Amino acid sequence: SQKIEQNSEALNIQEGKTATLTCNYTNYSPAYLQWYRQDPGRGPVFLLLIRENEKEKRKERLKVTFDTTLKQSLFHITASQPADSATYLCALETDSWGKLQFGAGTQVVVTP
Amino acid sequence: SAVISQKPSRDICQRGTSLTIQCQVDSQVTMMFWYRQQPGQSLTLIATANQGSEATYESGFVIDKFPISRPNLTFSTLTVSNMSPEDSSIYLCSVEPDRGRQETQYFGPGTRLLVL
Asked: What pLDDT score was predicted for residue B42?
């Protein structure tokens, strides 16, 4: 069966450092992978999409990599700020109609 | 992009009753989805709401328990029927307004449901 794994332990990081989150998947060959941010009591907010033929994508202080051989995506927050504290979810498309399967998410806590 | 609202934002219900959740989008969209997020868990897709046809349900979810309506391209409802405490969860709708150009889903704020 299809499985998506994200670090379940919260990532505590000091302001200014780089946070790196991992998303591993099995039994998938997704055409693209997405990362979302979710704050408590809110719906997820889209951050980045990376396609299977792309190795890396950047948006401001965010960077995503996608290794289809390792079946892994890494999500980096550089120069982290307390406002980056949230839960980050990876999601893989599971069919051509846009259905997504989400990982459990990794909570990031950035301390001043 | 798309702006999505959900009603109610939260509710406390008694076992055995039903609750209908509304999802309104500020633009016409083809794809609408309903998710459940149980406490401390990630999102699980319940069904895809299709305009003009029956919803497509994921494994483990059935129409009798979660009937869905999609009367037009900007609105959908999800009913949680014959509720039990196990249905306590956050229910979210999402849309993908730009399919074919950008496969991004936009989520509503969610409906927090507590079943006693």
From this structure: 85
